[in-house]
Amino acid sequence: MKRLFALFLFLPLAAHAAWGEFDYDFENEKPWKELESQLPASPKDENLLPFQVSAATDNTFYVDSQSISVGEDGVVRFTLVVKSPEGASNVMFEGIRCRTREVRLYAFGRSDGTWGKARDNEWKPIHYERRNRPDHVLYDDFFCPREIIVTDPAEAIDALKRGNHPRAGKSTWF
Asked: Which end is more exposed in the chain, N or C (fewer Cβ atoms within 10 Å of the end residue's Cβ)?
């Protein structure tokens, strides 16, 4: 009888210890590690998908549909093209990390179709500011609506073609 009583005392303690280990394993994620990415081909006009950033700018903004990727690291990578009314273009290869609401500039496109590595290529928070408004719109309305990453490039392309992701609702920038 003493052995049986001791067993009943031990079982709840053992079960609690095992449950505690489960909680620890479940709640403590592995450290995030960014995947290495390949630079895409230089964008072609026929692959550019326009998106509205603000009525306060005359620039037009595009994402190269052929460059969009959704990595297992939770980063949507894409080529952003900004064209001025005078015809000048800026081409940038960027990544948006939906979970942390950050953007990273990997490279700038050169006029000869090659890429130059960005000097300041650290992850930066996406703020509601004029200078990173395109990234904010891409985050909220296309790639990370309601802070949920798109599942694949096709979903991102569909959202860009529609002018908004169905989960995003109406944008506040228009």
From this structure: N
